[in-house]
Amino acid sequence: MKNWKSILYTIGGGCLAALAVFLMFSSAKADEKRMCEGVIVRIKDEDKQLLVKQADVLQWATREGTFPLKGMPLSRIKLKTVEQRVESSGIIKECQAYVNLNGYIILDVEVYKPMARILGNARFPDRYMDETGHFFPVSKNYTPTVLLLSGPYFEQIKGLKSEENKDLLELIQTVANDEFWSAQITRMHVDKHKEIQLEPLLGEHLIEFGKPQKIRTKLEKLMVFYTKILPQDAWSKFTEVSVKYDGQIVCR
Q1: Which of 22, 126, 153, 160 has the fewest CB atoms in 10 Å of its CB?
Q2: Cβ–Cβ under 8 Å, residues 209 and 175
Q3: What is the spatial distance between Cα 244 and Cα 213, in angstroms, rounded to a whole number?
Q4: What are phi and psi of 194, to 5 degrees?
Q5: Where are the alpha helices (DSSP H) in the chain?
Q6: How many C-beta atoms surround the C-beta of residue 229 within 10 A?
């Protein structure tokens, strides 16, 4: 009896395996004939970002319309290639492409979020920087109000993700994420030696910050200037404030 049961199990298992192979083969043959019904773009947090529109993603995915996807056999469309086209725009952090049951290609995309804008010149275009220090192109659709970065130092680098630039990235993050400093500091100029000058929104003075070291201590000294010194004098009295040196605030 046990032998018969074993034989039946073996036969049943073989039938199921054969059925699975048949279904896979049939599905593959069916996919060869299926056409792409269209493209659906889904942008993560679309209501919170204005840099990229769905039309932009479609343009990148289809190579400005020269490689239309709708109406093409799905078997001829390489989804990985479509993802790479969208991500090559530089402004898209991630793109995932897949086909749904109705024959539509779904593009799930995530856009880089700008923390600061790097001001360019005749040789270098403006760029944005996200919270990780990644540089990416500006958008033709929208210009967000973010911290401005300038200076020759940014002409020498392609991002701030390296250990060497960890200190500068920390300073930018600290200013951009703080309610007071993000409102008061509008521009950060960095020379080729990584010496920093800050430009405030209010007042005629510039702030000599020095290198991005002892960041918290320097910002605390600068806060003393704004809360203790300035209230006693006219805003226009000083043209330069320095917190570069240890243990002192120098006002000129």
Answers
A1: 22
A2: no
A3: 9
A4: 70, 25
A5: 2-33, 54-61, 79-87, 166-177, 179-184, 215-224
A6: 14
Provide the residue type at 4 as one letter: W
SS3 content of the chain, % helix, strand, coil (to 5): 40, 25, 35
Contact between 51 and 136 under an 8 Å Cβ cutoff? The reply is no
Which of 175, 178, 177, 205 lies closest to 188, judged by CA?
175
Rounded Cα gap, residues 215 and 198, in angstroms: 13
* Bridge partners (DSSP) listed for residue 111: 92
What is the rounded CA–CA span in Å between residue 183 and residue 201? 7
- Mean pLDDT of successive 10-residue stretches along the chain, which has 252 residues: 53 54 49 86 94 96 92 95 96 97 96 96 91 96 96 94 96 97 97 96 91 96 88 72 91 84
What number of other Cβ atoms are within 10 A of residue 20's Cβ? 10
149: left (phi over 0), alpha (psi -120 to 50) or beta: beta
Place of tokens 């760029």: 127
SS3 89: coil
Paired sense of beta strands 116-118 and 147-150, if any: parallel
Distance CA 144, CA 169 (A): 20
d(C-alpha 29, C-alpha 234), whole Å:
80
Contact 194, 154 (CB under 8 A): no
Amino acid symbol at 65: G
